[in-house]
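Dear H.,

Thanks for agreeing to be a second pair of eyes. The structure we're designing against is below in C-alpha cell form, covering all 450 positions.
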C-alpha cells in the first residue's frame, strides 16, 4: 500500500557475499517501485531490488562516493497484474565467473537476458546482512514505495540457493507454484528470515527470530495469495480517467466531466458458477453515475470507450449505478432502489448458471424479494438472461468525477479497512461483510474451480 514499508536493522554482521532473496509479489501498476532497499541513503552504500517504470526487474548496488558496483536490468518485462510472480535472487560474489555472482530466477526460470550487466566485483561485500536498515517495500531512501501485494518474503543467509527451495512446477498445469514449507539446503543463517507467511505477520517464521517492524503506512491483510489468486481491477484495462489504489481493489474517478472505465482481472464464465462480491461506495459525487456491473469480455472494446461516446458500454452491461439505476443490457430502470449514500455497501450476486442478477444494500433483504438461491426459477432477479457457454463476463466499473468505490472480492477489506463483522462464506476461502448466499463463491482461482 502507499507509503507502507517494513524495516529491520540486524544487530550483527553476517555473510555479505553469499545469500539468497525470494519474493512472491502481485504487481498493481507499471510505476517505479521497490521490493527492497538496504542502506542509509539514496546511493551511498545502497542496495536495491526494484521494478523500473516499464516493469523490468532492476538490481543495483553502490559503494562509497556514489560508485555503482552492480547494475542489472532484465529485458523481460513483468506486467501481469492478475497473478503472482516468484522472484528469487541468489548471490555469491566469491565466484570467479561474473555471471555466477548474481542469479535471477523468475517463476523458477533462470534469466539470462539483460539490458545492462554490471556484476559486482569478485568478493564484494554488499549491504545485505550488514548492520544497516533493511527495508521491505521501499527504496533505501524511503521512497519508491511498493503498491502491490507481497507474500513469503525470505532471506537465506550464507547460501546461494536454487529456486526449488521456494517453489515447484505443478505436475498437472506446468505452472510454478509456491512451497509453503521452506527448508534451506543448509540453514537460514544468522540474519535469515521469512515474513508475511501468514497474512500480514511481521514475525519471522524461519528458525530465527529476526522479526520486522512496520516502518510507516498501513499494512493490510488480504486472502489474495500465491495459492489462491483473487480478482482485482486490471490496471492494463484502465482508461485514463480512472485511478487505482490499495492493491487495485479501489477505483477512483479522475475526470470532472466524464466517466472512466476499468475491468477485473478475472472473469465469470457464463453458464457456469455463482459468484458474490461487495462494493463500498466511499465517496459519491453529486450527480454521480458510477456504475458497477458485468460486461461480456467480447465487449471489452466498448467498455474502453468513455461513457457518452458511440458504443456506450452502459448499453451492454448488467448491474447498477448508485444514483438508483438498474442496467439491463440496452435498457435502464429507475426507482428500484433509492440513491445510495457515502459508506453504503452493496452485495452483488450473479447466478451465471441460470442467468440472474441479485442485489442487496447494507445487508438488507435482496431487492424485489430476490432469492439468489432459487436456481432456475430466478425468483425476484433484477435482471435475467439466457446463459451462453461461449461467453465470459468481467466486472466493470466506471467511476465518475472524483468518486471512490472499494471492491471486496473476498479478500476481506474495503480499501485498507477490514470488514467489520464477517458473514458466512462460501465453500472456498473468502471474507465478506455480509452472508454469502448458499452456493456462491468469491471471484478467485479456487472460487472459479469450486
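And this is the sequence the design step returned. I haven't edited it by hand at all.
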Amino acid at each position: 500500500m502507499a507509503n507502507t514499508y517494513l524495516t529491520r536493522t540486524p544487530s550483527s554482521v553476517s555473510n555479505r557475499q553469499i545469500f539468497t532473496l525470494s519474493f512472491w509479489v502481485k504487481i498493481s501498476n507499471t510505476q517505479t517501485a521497490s521490493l527492497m532497499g538496504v542502506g542509509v541513503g539514496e546511493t551511498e552504500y545502497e542496495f536495491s531490488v526494484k521494478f523500473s517504470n516499464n516493469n523490468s526487474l532492476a538490481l543495483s548496488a553502490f559503494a562509497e562516493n556514489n560508485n555503482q558496483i552492480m547494475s542489472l536490468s532484465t529485458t523481460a518485462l513483468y506486467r501481469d497484474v492478475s497473478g503472482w510472480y516468484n522472484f528469487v535472487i541468489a548471490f555469491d560474489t566469491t565466484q570467479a565467473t561474473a555471471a555466477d555472482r548474481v542469479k535471477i530466477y523468475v517463476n523458477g526460470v533462470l534469466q539470462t537476458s539483460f539490458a545492462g550487466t554490471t556484476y559486482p566485483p569478485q568478493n564484494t561485500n554488499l549491504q545485505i546482512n550488514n548492520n544497516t536498515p533493511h527495508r521491505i517495500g521501499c527504496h533505501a531512501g524511503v521512497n519508491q514505495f511498493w503498491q502491490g501485494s507481497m507474500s513469503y518474503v525470505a532471506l537465506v543467509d550464507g547460501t546461494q540457493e536454487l529456486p526449488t527451495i521456494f517453489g515447484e512446477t505443478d505436475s498437472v498445469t506446468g505452472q510454478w507454484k509456491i512451497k509453503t514449507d521452506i527448508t534451506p539446503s543448509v540453514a537460514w543463517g544468522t540474519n535469515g528470515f521469512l515474513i508475511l507467511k501468514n497474512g500480514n505477520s511481521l514475525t519471522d517464521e524461519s528458525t530465527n527470530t529476526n522479526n520486522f517492524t512496520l516502518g510507516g503506512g498501513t499494512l493490510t491483510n488480504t486472502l489474495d495469495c500465491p495459492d489462491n489468486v483473487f480478482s482485482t481491477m486490471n490496471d492494463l484495462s484502465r482508461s485514463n480517467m480512472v485511478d487505482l489504489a490499495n492493491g487495485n481493489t479501489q477505483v477512483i474517478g479522475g475526470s470532472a466531466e466524464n466517466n472512466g472505465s476499468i475491468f477485473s482481472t478475472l472473469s465469470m464464465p457464463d453458464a457456469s458458477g455463482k459468484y458474490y462480491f461487495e462494493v463500498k461506495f466511499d465517496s459519491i459525487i453529486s450527480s454521480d453515475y458510477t456504475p458497477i456491473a458485468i460486461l461480456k469480455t467480447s465487449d471489452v472494446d466498448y467498455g474502453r470507450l468513455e461513457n457518452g461516446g458511440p458504443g456506450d458500454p452502459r448499453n451492454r452491461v448488467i448491474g447498477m449505478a448508485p444514483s438508483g439505476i438498474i442496467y439491463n443490457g440496452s435498457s435502464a430502470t429507475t426507482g428500484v432502489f433509492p440513491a445510495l449514500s457515502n459508506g453504503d455497501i452493496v452485495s452483488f450476486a450473479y447466478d451465471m448458471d441460470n442467468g440472474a442478477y441479485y442485489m442487496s444494500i447494507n445487508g438488507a433483504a435482496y431487492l424485489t424479494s430476490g432469492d439468489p438461491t432459487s436456481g432456475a426459477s430466478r425468483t425476484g432477479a433484477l435482471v435475467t438472461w439466457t446463459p451462453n457457454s461461449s461467453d465470459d463476463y468481467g466486472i466493470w466499473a466506471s467511476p465518475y468525477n472524483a468518486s471512490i468505490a472499494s471492491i471486496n472480492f473476498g479478500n476481506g477489506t474495503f480499501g485498507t479497512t477490514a470488514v467489520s463483522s464477517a458473514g458466512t462464506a462460501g465453500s472456498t476461502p473468502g471474507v465478506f461483510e455480509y452472508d454469502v448466499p448458499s452456493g456462491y463463491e468469491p471471484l478467485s482461482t479456487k472460487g472459479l474451480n469450486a
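Two observations from my side: Residues 302-311 have pLDDT under 50 and may be disordered. The CA atoms of residues 117 and 410 lie 42 Å apart.

Warmly,
E.
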